[in-house]
Structure formats: structure tokens, C-alpha cells
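Key idea: predict the complex, not the pieces.
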Amino acid sequence: MPPSVHQSGPGSASVIVIDDTVALDWLVNKTVHFFNHESCGKCTPCREGTYWMSHLTRAYSRRAWNNRRRGLLLNVAKQMQGKCLCALGEFSTMAVVTGIERFRQDFDKAVKA
Amino acid sequence: MSKQVTLTIDGKQITVPDGIVVADAAKMVGSISPSFVIIQTRAGWHVSHVSRGDWSSERDRATGQFVMENGAPKIQFMPKLETACTNKVEDGMVILTQSAKATDGQKGTVEFLLTSHPLDCPICDKGGECPLQNLTMAYGPGKSRFIYNEKLHLDRWFRWVIDLFGSRTLYSCARCIRFQDEIAGDSVIGFDARARSTQIVSLSDPGFDFGFLGQYL
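Result:
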């Protein structure tokens, strides 16, 4: 399936090839934890935002995922956009925003589970 | 006399000494830009954001002509918000501190800051005269959406005083580290880890001497 079909871009400055057996909520969880670990902490939106997002995505494994948390995760990601000092903070939001907006069904499955 | 620069803040033109930060210039014209830099620090944590003009006018890409707004060339602002407490004033700057984008950034950043601050205002020495409380009242959200109960590390409260500072403080000002280096002359404490995990530790042997502890407060 060509990339133009979904027009999506989870990840940052890289191409991630996955098949359709991988749930995007799992991928977003991994990506957010990577950026949370890599954040240097100099700017507030990145330091606190990646930490907050990692807390929210961690709810997958605890089966505590719900629509309110999904909305809050998207809101926190958008609250970070355009405010971080460097590109790492901006990149950290891309997987979350595109994942939720364009692969909503994967997150809905997590809610039902 | 030091060099002077002229800039526009919220529509008011002001001439200020070169080298000061935007937050200080904003206070001079009455546009209080939120800032939490209350002391000079080595690593300036920042709170405030302002929209900052790059003193160039917006041009139409097709025709190359200036885009007009209210009879004057439209100011082309930078796409991202900038910090008021770390950016220095420059001649011709155009700054908005009350635009929808700027206020949204201020509110969001204060909310982010509060996620890592302990809720111990009633027993805190700074309660009632706290810059963060003032910032929250003026610019912050009325309700917290950060529901995780991990702001106050009570297990560390009685155990290790320096660890207490590192765990409780909102920003890492390094004030106690500098005091220990420059005044006490005993460089035995420093930062460990980064981001939210940053804390002040001592690996000295024999253990850290608390003889100057009162000076840290």
C-alpha cells in the first residue's frame, strides 16, 4: 500500500515500515517512551509533555485506557506543538497526533479491550 | 550611555537598553509577560512565551508584493512562540504578549510546570508569596488534568535534606551548588540525571557536611 493512502507520518525524520498486524497504539506507546527518555529537560513543554504523554500511553498495558485519556493525550500533544526549543519536542508529538487522528480504530480497540 | 534599541510590544513603542531580555522590556510598558526566572541561573528554565516579530513584512509569494493589513505592511511573525525570559531585545522587534496564540502558550506552559510541582503550598515557606502561585492565578488553568499522585515525595521528606531540595523544587537553579562551590569552598554536591529525574546529590566521602545548610534557603 503506497504511503500516500494514509498520508501519515508516525515517527520522526525516519521511515518505519510495519505491517498491518501491528497496532498503532502500541507503536505510539513505544515512540512516546523513546522521546520521554531522550528529552534533555531544558524546555518545559518537552520535559513535562513527554513525561505526561508517556504516563497516558502506559495505560494501555494497565487496561485503563478510555476515551477521556485518548482525548487528553491528543490535547497534551497539541499543547506541546510550536512551543519546544528544539525539534525533538516537536517530533515527539507527531506519532501521537497522526496516530490518533488517522488510525483511530486501533485506539478504539484498546478502549474496548 | 549604553546602546538603546527600539521595539514594539503589544502596539506600544519603547526604547530600552540593549541586552535586556524581552520579559523585562514587557514589564516596562505594562505588558507583564509571565516569567519564572527570578534569579540568574546557569541553565535558565523558562516559562513564558511571546510571539516575536522578525521585523520583516509579509510578502505575497505569487506577486512578491507586501501583504497589507490596516493600511500598513502586515508583520510576519515567526511560526513558533519564543521565550520572553531568554530572548534579548533587538532593534525593530514586534512582540505580542496578549495574542490568542501567546496566551494559549502561557496557559499551557504553566500547566506543564504544575505537573511536576508538589501540592504542599499550605506547609511551604513560600506559600502566599510564591511567584508560581501568582503565575498560576494570573495565567494558569483553574483545574489540573494531571491526575497522577507523584508530585510529593514524602519518603524523601525526612531522609535526606539535599535530596529534598532536588525533589521538591520546580526548577533546577543550582543556587545551592554554586553556594557550595563559591562561598563554602567545598564542591561536594551537584546535579544528577536529566529532565524530570534531575536531582541534587552528593557522592562525597565522608558524607556531606550540613554546616551551611541555613544559607541555602
